[in-house]
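Write out the 3D structure for:
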Amino acid sequence: MSLIIRILLPVFLLPLCLPAYTQNYAASLIPEELMKNANSVIREHKVSYTINSEKEVIKHQSYAITILNQKADNQAVVLIPYNTAEKISLGNFMIYDASGKKVRTVKSSEILDRSYVDNMSLYTDLRLKYLKAIGSAYPFTLVYSYEIKSPKLYVIDNFQPYASENQSVQYAEISVINNAQAGLHVSFSGENQPDISSPDAKTTVWSFRNLPSISNEPYAPNAYDIVPGVFITPDKLYYSGYSGSAATWADYGQWKTELLSGRDQLPVSSYGKYRQLTANCNTKTEKVRKLYKHLQSTTHYINISTDIGGLQPHHAADVENLGYGDCKDLSNFMVAMLKAVDIEAFYTAIKAGTGKYQFFMDHPGHQSNHIIVCVPLENDTIWLECTNQENPFGYVGQGIDNRFALIVDGNRSRVVKTPSYSGKSNTLTSNFRLETDGNDTFLKGSFRFGGLFAGMPAQISRQTMHDQQQWVIQNLEMRNFNLRNHQFRIYDFEKVYVNLEIAADIPGLFAENGGRIYLPLNLNNRIKVPEKVRNRKYPLVIDKPFTQTDTVTIVLPHGFIPELMPEANLADADFGHYFMKTSFNKGEITCVREFCLKEGRYAPERYKDFQAFMQNVSIADSKQLVLKKE
């Protein structure tokens, strides 16, 4: 997992810059310690925000980066997002050679300006300035600047001095010139705290110097625990006519509630339709399920975002009529449908994603990129992901599990945490039977995916048969098998899990060698060993515990008996356990393998113990069953 998190801020968080080109950019002036394990060096990165009023914030940014080799070519790509309500001014874009001599100034025609529309967006007012800089030889230095004037005060910045792994930083700073005397929330992340200075009463500067290269390590902590950063937001908000406060989470939730005002209304006829649709449901849970399935079958995700539309949903009646919308639209529509059948539900802001993430509990304000729905019932709370047509009912997948979320409920708005999964919940179970007629081997059995394992199979189950087959073939670790048939089944009543039944041929599995048959028992779910790391720097973090249990029953080919039935039993009090048990009864051998990985955080020195444990487990798991002729 990448340690560096590059944040392309949404429509409301756009970058800006101005220049200072007196610095000598000769590569020879880079300190030796910053060259170690580095493919690029940020020579100078300055960002300055001038807050003149709630309706005028000006950001200036200047940036100089030395590209040491071709591995860092992607760092010579400039991406500057902005929207049409903002005024952008570009400074000079220049390229210097290794000696620090200016080679050329980039022509304005080389800097492209394009709509920032992805394949999930119908329309957006977000635009992008784009340049791919190319030097004549390595190393070369790219220097550029730009400025953006924004008519809103919402988020200042989530500033990170690093832009990539294997990159060092000579100097980086973010500053705020607070002419409006706005209250600010400021939070720090990472191992290196910034130096803080105040050149005058209105200006604060946070700076970093001589930060060494960061390399990726397996099982590393949250990137924000390592990568330094400065997160700045105002406690007063203004966005397209909506003023408010972010002094507390309740205040910020009140402001977001105002963005929703009147947008959950549906026509009277719709109220009748949804009441009729749920008329035969006996419980509130059944009603929620019925309406969620209706949402999934009648809508799909499309983003339409202009101005405050990045934060404010379209009217529920329009979403109902059109049959599409983004996460805000679909979640707001879901809340409206539940309201129609007298079930209280809440529009909920969360920072979704597949990786680790950052959240500052004592920093009220915008820390989200996604909207879901929370339905609190008497004995349970149901969470609804409304943008995924394949998501099982009530399933809290890897993108939204174990995360802080803001329930938007006026002045009662509050931060809660979504459910997390233990090692007993994250389960991958298989049960197979193997038979041979002397030439071919036939396999039949099933997988059961639980907890976080259920997400991807659930999505695949709704795709075309061809795509399903390709996924099964790519994810089964059996060699040289021919898939006969398969079937997915989703169960989402009490506990969510996905069942996959398969039948396959495995030619040559029972091939003889000198009168013996050597049969691998780890046909699937093989144990993967993390790489060795010398001089481990960061703590070992295991944050996704799981248990996998695999059972295979082998009908012995005629004339063969077991000669060696492998057994194994390994355990570590911190990391988990593994066992393999085999038994023989009436011509059949049954092998049960179980591997449990525990959750935990340990000192860097323990990584070698963990790697050794995983290595030993992998060796034990690779033991073969040996059959011989009678």
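Residues 1-21 have pLDDT under 50 and may be disordered.
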